[in-house]
Amino acid sequence: MHFFTSFAKRPFLLLFTVLILSLIFVLSIANNAVLETDLDEYMPKTHPAFMASDKAESLFGIKDAILIVVEHPEGIYNSGTIEKIDAITVALQEEFDAIESVTSLTTADNIKSDDGFLEVEPFYSGKTSQAAISQMQAEVEANPMIYGRNVSKDGTATLIIAELNNDIDADVLQTWVTQWEGPEKLMVAGRPVVEGALAELGPKDMAIMFPLVIITMIILLFLLLRSVRDTVLNMVIVLFGTLVSFGLMTLLNIPIYAVDTMIPVMLIAIGVAYGIHMHNTIHHFMRSYPDLSKEELATLSLKQMVRPIIMTAITTAIGFVALMSSQVLPVRYFGLFAAIGVLSEMLLALLLFPASIYLLGKPKYKKAKADFETQREKGTLSDTLQALLLHRPKMIVFISIAVLIIGVWGTSKVWIDTSFLANFEEDSTIAQTDQFVNSNFGGTSTLNIILNGDEPDLFKHPEVLLAMDSMQEDLEKDPIVGNTLSLATFIKQMNQVMLEHEDGSYSIPDSQELVSQYLLLYEFSGDPETLEQVVDYEYTSANITVQLKSDSSAVLKDILAVVDYYRPVFAEHAIEITYAGSGYKAFIFSELLLEGQIISLAISFAIIIILLALMFKNLRIGVVGTVPIAITAVVNFGVMGLLGIPLSSATALITSIAIGIGVDYAIHFLEHYTNERLGGSSLEQATRSTLRHTGRAIIFNAIAVMGGFAILMFSVFPPNRQVGALIVLNMATSALGTLTILVVLVHYLEKKHVFLPKRILDNNTRSFS
């Protein structure tokens, strides 16, 4: 208390400090801010699954790739299109250092035989005569390793696959590709393109959301507070909190993740709560004690609000800090820096409002306005609500239980999805290109199944290859799987061409000696580096690439179940199964997301119950105070389940935010109600006074927070819009729950005589309640 009072008495020092810190943070943000969209950077590097994946990716050269679609409406098998594909293939490697290798129809190898000898030659001979092109088409359609995988089955489109060894500017590549269009249509897909689009859209979205939420909040605050001065003070507080959050992040060289773009909107919406309650208390004292000096007004306002505002800020911060239990880096950093922003807003609110009284004097408060405010507080709404709570408590309890039952049912339907493409509208170019690739080729996402053994030449054994082939066939029965590729696929193709495509020749030979011979012939005739993508040098480890027609982590469970079915089969050959690739990483990401959500919720509730119990010296109050936010959490998940909204890296944040903000309402209500009761008011009088005074502030607070978060519904990212709508719902639920079921439960504790005896307040805190 002394700290806030002494600092508030030096308003110029306070303003100077805020200005200098703001300048430092602005410069840091301008110079150091980096938006991170690489999914690999979202993962904990020490997690066993990611370490195993990274090891396999290094062993088999598994890299991110950009997919360039070349589509000709009349078919790609013409001299002009083939020559253009070849020219693009060459130009990509020459003009982009980030591209390590390029595979296209003109560079892909064809496995065939000639007089009993295995030959590996490119499909494209360099000739573009009609006869040469017709022969190439026939060879492509006879080779399942490329037909339907890199070339569409209707012959109208093909893929140019550019593997990356470094990050690439997807926007520059997109622009570069357009020069090759006509009559062919060119499209660009792949995870690097999606990440690049996110990196471009993220700042643009923030540039729209930030000013929009500021304008909206200014209008809302002025309409609610009817004070230009207090509106300005509130905006200074929330803008400073945002600068502190992002400024510290950039000063510590921590990248800004896509989900962090919501922090400004959240901090602006959350931070106004402290200003609203300060405004409400200051004006309450001015109406009750109009002759107070400015020093007395500042001191009494601080005494009244320092405890509840600090506690509400701490509980809000706890909701965010609990997210640090997640192993998902964006969620962890979001929680940390959002909490720092909230605490800085609390600190400045407790300093700036009293300082403004010392600097500018008491707020102007006309007699007519005072009378109007007094009458508004004595309106019929609070009296009607009080009558309902006192005379119909069972109805409130019944409705609350019904809401909980429906919410629990809806919660059982919640599903998890970490799809990056979910960030784009279905009619966006990114989404449409991805859909085109998934419809005509193997797919844009991959899962790599890694088989590890110790025996040299293990993967030359026919029985091992047969097990691999059988698993691949079962995997390809899933409509989400485009196709699969492994050493077994190569061996089947070699066997087929050596047996001149006789019936049943596309199969695994029975003889290990024949398998070894095929592989030896391939190494002599083709590019050994191609085999390095599916098997290691000693044939002790193998890679099965599964192409997926969706990047949704939700679709992987059925696929992994098929693989798990084959674990005992491979275990007979002392082979262990692990995974790698972006598809698997997305799945583990979703598992960590769910785990983190459960842990953060448990931590939030436990700590908040303890803090409330300590604050009010009563464990029962601690438990009762969390009831509205518990209902809010169930309603949130219930609505998500009923509306089919997935739990994603964005929506996973909602409940922790709702808990942190929602409990503020309970703290303010319980603080004022208890002060009233200890001041001698009856249960009815305390309820009426609390509903009129604090209830009004809670409603104002909820409206302001809802208005701020509603701006997210204008975001270009669908998940952000879902977050905005759900938090609006959560705030309304928390406020309504505080003003209904919490009051009923407090009355129940009162009647059982277990509420007041546990409560001890300092006399100075109660003097002017």
List how many beta strands DSSP finds.
Answer: 12
Which CATH-level-2 architecture of the largest domain? Answer: Up-down Bundle
Residue share in β-strands: 5-15%
Described by strand count, sense and barrel closure, the largest sheet is:
4 strands, antiparallel
Mean pLDDT reading:
84
GO molecular function: transmembrane transporter activity
Protein name: RND family transporter
Transmembrane segments: 206-225, 232-251, 257-277, 309-329, 335-360, 395-416, 598-616, 623-645, 651-670, 698-717, 723-749
InterPro entries: Acrflvin-R, MMPL_dom, Mycobact_MmpL, SSD
Characterization of this structure:
This protein has 769 residues and is α+β, with helices and mostly antiparallel strands. The protein has 3 domains: 2-39 and 196-412 and 587-766, Up-down Bundle (Multidrug efflux transporter AcrB transmembrane fold), CATH 1.20.1640.10; 62-195, Alpha-Beta Plaits, CATH 3.30.70; 436-581, no CATH class.
